[in-house]
Amino acid sequence: MSKQIDDFFKNIISHAKEYGFVFPSSEIYDGLSAVYDYGQLGSELKNNLKTYWWKSMVQLNDNIVGIDAAIFMHPTTWKASGHVDGFSDPMIDNKDSKKRYRADQLIEDKIDRYEQDGKSDKAAELQTALDAALNADDLAKLKTLIEEHNIVCPMSGTKNWTDVRQFNLMFATQMGAMADGAEQVYLRPETAQGIFVNFLNVQKTGRMKVPFGIAQIGKAFRNEVIARQFIIRMREFEQMEMQFFVRPGTEMEWYDKWKALRLKWHLALGPDAAKYRYHDHAKLAHYANAAVDIEYDFPFGFKEVEGIHSRTDFDLSQHQKFSGKKMQYFDPEVNQNYVPYVIETSIGLDRLFLTVFANSLVHEDLSTDEKQDSRVVLKFHPAIAPVKAAVLPLTKKDGLPDKAKEILARLKLDFNTQYDEKDAIGKRYRRQDAIGTPYCITVDYQTLEDNTVTIRHRDSMEQERVSIDQLQQIIQDNVGWTNLLKQLM
């Protein structure tokens, strides 16, 4: 990672903490590895991203409904899904630092460094070798690649590696009042299985006809042993998943459709399209016949943000086998019973949060011939901005705060707003820029005379005089969901 890119990533992390977006969990006790808390503005941004996803999936699609399945599930669920026997990653330990790493990610990081150093041929050669080793489940080859390419431990800087071994990522716990009579259950490592086990319930009660989808937002838990890259890899994270049930034989048509729709969804937020790419899986999961990732170019390289997978009928067939319940659908159009195939779209909410944050954080030089000036601004799409408007009295006297609070009381019924009367107005503008507030409304002495205010636009910093009675509509027209969702129709 070049120093400029490394500095930008550090700025993202420090800005997120300084302004109340993301905190290290349990920080007063020196934190907990790979666990983070979302602060007062981070939780607002996160909720807005969830709302955007839910509205686009459920509200805009007549044949998609949402559920909220429990985190705890019958342990046989994870036997049927393959997680008990096969949910593991190839891990390697450094004997000097006593740190454990995913072997494939160490190699992927080396590939990224080759690319950054202009060694595309070596990067391609190593990528081919990595893909071959993963496809063959050749753990010894992974260690050989690490040794041949002089990959060192990020902590110790040494190459004193153990052999590569598989490590199961599920958290296990006990359910029951007495330890000796307790049943072992798992914290779910993904939210998809809660959808699959409810397939019949939703299909029958909702009178759903194939093709149809079931959407869900929920927490998942994985015993990630690598704590790095901020909120990219965490032990507790949130997923937004939709499982789309289709007639066998039509799955590739729907796979291509959802692949295009999901990238369109990301780009509607207004990022640089060049920072996104598709990455087809070289090694398919045991349940898939096609899989692609939508990747974003983070400061540390391209990483997955969302996956689109054609899961065949694996999941429903497995649950049919292990539960003894028929997971079939009668299709009147073809007069046939079948187990539906599934197209999955799965997005990590925390990763989406980081892409939006990285896309939006801008350092602007505002210097002129007369003076040096700059600002840091989060240029969120207005619909997802944590705070929609700030009301600022010009001074703390002469009735201006009373008038400002009167305006605030009207706006807060529809929008998340802030009130700020501390410091000079310029400093207050900068504070709102730093948290991404689209509009600052300044109440001054003219307001008391003619009931108008100055409204300042975040991105352009332009100011205009408008009637207080117009504020509601001006803000709604720009921060409402309509403009954003229209791009998806």
TrEMBL record:
- Which Pfam families does the UniProt record give? HGTP_anticodon, tRNA-synt_2b
Aminoacyl-tRNA synthetase: is it a keyword of this entry? yes
Q: What is its main location?
A: cytoplasm
| Residues that hold substrate according to the record | 102, 190, 237-241, 344-348
Q: Where is the Aminoacyl-transfer RNA synthetases class-II family profile domain?
A: 170-393
GO CC, sorted alphabetically, is: cytoplasm; extracellular exosome; microvesicle
Cited Gene3D superfamilies: 3.30.40.230, Anticodon-binding domain, Bira Bifunctional Protein, Domain 2
Q: Give the location in the cell.
A: Cytoplasm
Name the catalysed reactions: tRNA(Gly) + glycine + ATP = glycyl-tRNA(Gly) + AMP + diphosphate
Which first-to-last residue range defines the signal peptide? none
**For ATP, which residues are the binding ones?**
222-224, 232-237, 304-305, 348-351
The GO molecular function terms of this record are: ATP binding; bis(5'-nucleosyl)-tetraphosphatase (asymmetrical) activity; glycine-tRNA ligase activity
Mind listing the GO biological process terms from this record?
diadenosine tetraphosphate biosynthetic process; glycyl-tRNA aminoacylation
Q: Write down the superkingdom of origin.
A: Bacteria
The UniProt keyword set, sorted, is: Aminoacyl-tRNA synthetase, ATP-binding, Cytoplasm, Ligase, Nucleotide-binding, Protein biosynthesis
Question: Recorded E.C. number(s)?
Answer: 6.1.1.14
Spell out the family assignment given in the record's similarity comment: Belongs to the class-II aminoacyl-tRNA synthetase family.
Question: What is the stated purpose of this protein?
Answer: Catalyzes the attachment of glycine to tRNA(Gly).
Task: Fill in the subunit field for this protein.
Answer: Homodimer.
Q: What is the protein name stated in its UniProt record?
A: Glycine--tRNA ligase
Q: Which organism is it from?
A: Sphingobacterium corticibacter
Q: Which gene is transcribed and translated to give this protein?
A: glyQS
